[in-house]
Amino acid sequence: MSGHDSKYFSTTKKGEIPELKEELNSQYKDKRKDAVKKVIAAMTVGKDVSSLFTDVVNCMQTENLELKKLVYLYLINYAKSQPDLAILAVNTFVKDSQDPNPLIRALAVRTMGCIRVDKITEYLCDPLQRCLKDDDPYVRKTASICVAKLYDINAELVEDRGFLESLKDLISDNNPMVVANAVAALSEIQENSSRPIFEVTSHTLSKLLTALNECTEWGQVFILDALSKYKAADAREAESIVERVTPRLQHANCAVVLSAVKMILQQMELITSTDVVRNLCKKMAPPLVTLLSAEPEIQYVALRNINLIVQRRPTILAHEIKVFFCKYNDPIYVKMEKLEIMIKLASDRNIDQVLLEFKEYATEVDVDFVRKAVRAIGRCAIKLERAAERCISVLLELIKIKVNYVVQEAIIVIKDIFRRYPNTYESIIATLCESLDTLDEPEAKASMIWIIGEYAERIDNADELLESFLESFPEEPAQVQLQLLTATVKLFLKKPTEGPQQMIQVVLNNATVETDNPDLRDRAYIYWRLLSTDPEAAKDVVLAEKPVISDDSNQLDPSLLDELLANIATLSSVYHKPPDSFVTRVKTTPQRSEEEDYPDGSEAGYSESSAHAPDSGASPPTSSSSVPYASPKHPAATQVSPPPSAPAPDLLGDLIGLDNAIVPVDQPVEPAGPPLPVLLPASTGQGLQISAHLARKDGQIFYSMLFENNSQIPLDGFMIQFNKNSFGLAPAGPLQVPQLQPGTSARTLLPMVLFQNMAPGPPNSLLQVAVKNNQQPVWYFSDKISLLVLFSEDGKMERASFLEAWKSLPDSNEVSKEFPGITVNSLEGILDRLAASKVFFIAKRKHANQEVLYLSAQVPRGITFLIELTMVAGAPGVKCAIKTPSPEMAPLFFEAIETLLREKDDSEVHRVQTRIHELL
Amino acid sequence: MPVAASAIYFLNLRGDVLINRLYRDDVGGNMVDAFRMHIMQTKELGTCPVRQIGGCSFFYMRISNVYIVIVVSSNANVACAFKFVVEAVALFKSYFGGAFDEDAIRNNFVLIYELLDEIMDFGYPQNLSPEILKLYITQEGVRSPFSSKPSDKPVPNATLQVTGAVGWRREGLVYKKNEVFLDIVESVNLLMSSKGSVLRCDVTGKILMKCFLSGMPDLKLGLNDKIGLEKESQLKSRPAKSGKTIELDDVTFHQCVNLTRFNSEKTVSFVPPDGEFELMKYRITEGVNLPFRVLPTIKELGRTRMEVNVKVKSVFGAKMFALGVVIKIPVPKQTAKTSFQVTSGRAKYNAATDCLIWKIRKFPGQTEPTMSAEVELISTMAEKKSWTRPPIQMEFQVPMFTASGLRVRFLKVWEKSGYNTVEWVRYITKAGSYEIRC
Prior knowledge:
Chain B: One of its GO terms (biological process) is endocytosis. With 920 residues, chain A is an alpha+beta fold.
């Protein structure tokens, strides 16, 4: 009973649009319907049929539900491009939302929510209000989701019209599907809001657990996901929750099973009885194994999650290693994940079987898989001391097959095994040396060279072996060169005879004079000096006992693991990355004074909000706090640990003035300063919300931070750490935050220093921050470093030196970028803004009707930027060309300059920054 | 957030969009270009089904000649997304009669648009039960419950059934003859080492049901599984009957089965959907009866000749027989000539898959046919690497046999009208991945 719709695609004649127009206006119903189908077909293949908007909308008033749906579909696609015409549809929508047929009522409300045109949104409110209270559950369940849609378009409207309350009422609806959709909508709204809107209480908990039994499979997923955020009060409550969730493990839908597993694992953290925990582990194993008989894509998701689960609860699948054995026809991504889990589950008990499997895999066809299998053998050797010997003998067998990449991979892992068990398995070195000439991969070569150097005294011809590598020293990759250098030094120290002495001369010469790799050169100089001043000290350093390495197969940090386990079944658990690291969505932080409306994060309604009026100079920039900032019990961070150079800024005045100083474009007049961007929302921080921003004041860089405690417990013992970053930003002193009572907040200025922990690689703006306190797990969030805070006073230049510098730099150091969306209205205004941010004006000339400005700026370590801005005043489009000794900094620079050039529209700046953030 | 999708695309193998639906505003309309450029046109295709490109993540599956791609920009529920795609494809198949491919999509695009609108709202999956959706979305256009035209059969309270607690069955069904068909279908998965020891062996079974029952019947299914029997004897406080009982490692049920009741009473009770559905799946690893033993000996005689001898033993009852038995024995790529001797069935060399294929249409129990083959190889100097032998694979079906030993003990049907039902039960065991290393 297949359809024949493909005929609608075959209208590729000339003049198609006029023809369709005619058909759409036909007096015959069937013809109109066919015409609409053709329009949809054209839309599907990507043709622009938006010009038919009026004609299609005219077909909307119809009895025929199929035709109506098609017109609605068209509207969803094109309303945005024709907002003025879209309003034509409103009447029909409103009428349809009162139709006696519930399917039509629901359809109208569902479609209206998908049309993201402001004018239509206004008209949506009344129908939505009615539909949320509709008699028919089908309409109510559709309306619930529509509230989430509307919140995404206009959060303020949703709150003003009281839709959130209606939605909360629906949690008690008698229809399970309405409940499930309401829960889904509320969870989403909560996720996108910085205020507590939907928090699961023990009362809602039991109601939702009851609804679980009657929901559709998807509804069960919504509810379980929402409930997994619930924190049980004690072990007893946790046990009773788990008891009601465990039946879900038997569901045929993998999403239900994984969500149930997530919830059980969360509650298990609270359960103290080892019997209960053991029992739960026993119950969870079979459903997890069953997931491996699903479609390969689902298997992949399951395996990535199992990888996390066994890191936390290794016992769950300890006896199930066989189910992770690879099938010959498994897709490669499934095989790779299975292998990873096999390593994690390998134990003294099953290692023989596991090794047989690995050996089998090492003879398969896919090179990546084979390599991983060989590596797996090595990792097992490192992990299981008693099995190490067996692992090595398998590796030796594999080396004998003489497949090139197997040999190389084996040598790499054997090096690690030597490091784990020093002076145990050196007897095999002779076998390894046989394959010396087949090595062509840098890592394998480097490993082999390391082995030769480390055991030079036991290898009779170590000098000959090394010498064979030395001939090609200049052509070798850096990794190999470094190892060669070290190995030669070791050889010399162990056998200070004539041969090695000559070799060391050659190597040191090559590594100092002939190279442009600073790492190699530095290392060579160190060795050289050591050897020439004190050979005994050199021995102590170079031949010192090395720390024994350990197994890295449980590599995830415990707090990261916690976060990932809370996100089972989601992308985060598949990527093994926290959600913030790949979701770039900005929270809809209410712009108006809402935060002051609900000072304690509760819905207390309007309280003394006038005390925090934006024009009162004493009000902290964003305060959801009821404790005034200037309160004496909050010591300022900078007073306790003064930065080395700058005078300690005083509390309040500076804080606010500071915001003005760094981002004058954003807020030149507003005394209150812009709100700090929320980096750790309360929803992820278990009630702790952190907002922060880098700022510059008097030549000193500060990290301006706001901590808000929306949780139920006092928090204290705050500490902060920054990951390695491109500018080596690090705190100059400890973080000073007092104990935070529930509902209070604290601001601090953390003085920062540069070039402390530099990250290698090309510069980027990523700044990863970890904050911990005594009550909660470590929170990770990331911020971005804007060059704006790094521009220094030293950037000022004379005209002559500018010209000279410009000429001295090669053309290859010139980079340019267009900002088509930026309009500069007043040159003076822009120059003032630029100067305030330490971008200094040098000269200006006119070229036709274009203005050309020359400016300079400098960031620490003397990296100057010579800037040429070309624009036409009042017209959009600015071209920025720069010359700098470090062209790799250009993207960061352009980002900074774009922020400065933008008009001071706060929201726009914010948006641009977010977009840039996405690009990075 | 249980959101499963921001957009869904159906692409053909060239990457042309067959149909697409944007559910949320957070991904651009041109995201599919990124998918084409970064996944379809690179070697990445098939290396990982979940990929991040820019700010968006892509999940994709290939089904016949169609790629189904889901795009999200939030921390979506991936398990939910993939399951949604699987269920949606099953739904489409049930609408257009089996096939799901490029042509089927083009020929039903209006219907698919309608279904996509119905089964997912703002990225949240809604009811995907074909039984219920077919009440008001049909191939012939939509039937309206309140239509004035008498020709349209009115569907009372379709909306209540979509959202109802029994969201998979409609009310008011009437059959002249009330029948239930039960199919117990088992797949045996085996991985055997070259030395004949079992490395991994399990059975994944499913119980397929076809119901033609009037009204709203309550069904209860009894199997010979250990836990169920123990619980039963406990409740009735009498000792369990002796006889073979089996231990199920895991069971999963169709959404119609009351899981809470299963958990407490260990009984499988449910109100079935109308027509065909998969009632439950189970897995067994202990006490599996392997229907076949394969004994291969492969000798490489010098560089250009190989001798392959395979004996296959059927170890099920002599009165039973297997159907469609195929044994695939891999041989090296440079195979030039083959000659066979078989005591049953037919054998040939398939150059496309580098396999010797031995087919036996009807294979009685307790027999052991053999095949011996001589394989001549072209000697190539380039082939330095020794041949890595992929495993021997086997396909078969054995009717009226369960590798697990599972039996249906009873199926009770209660309906308030008290009609009699006829129950039919069939068993069949198939090969899942039945591999013997050699």
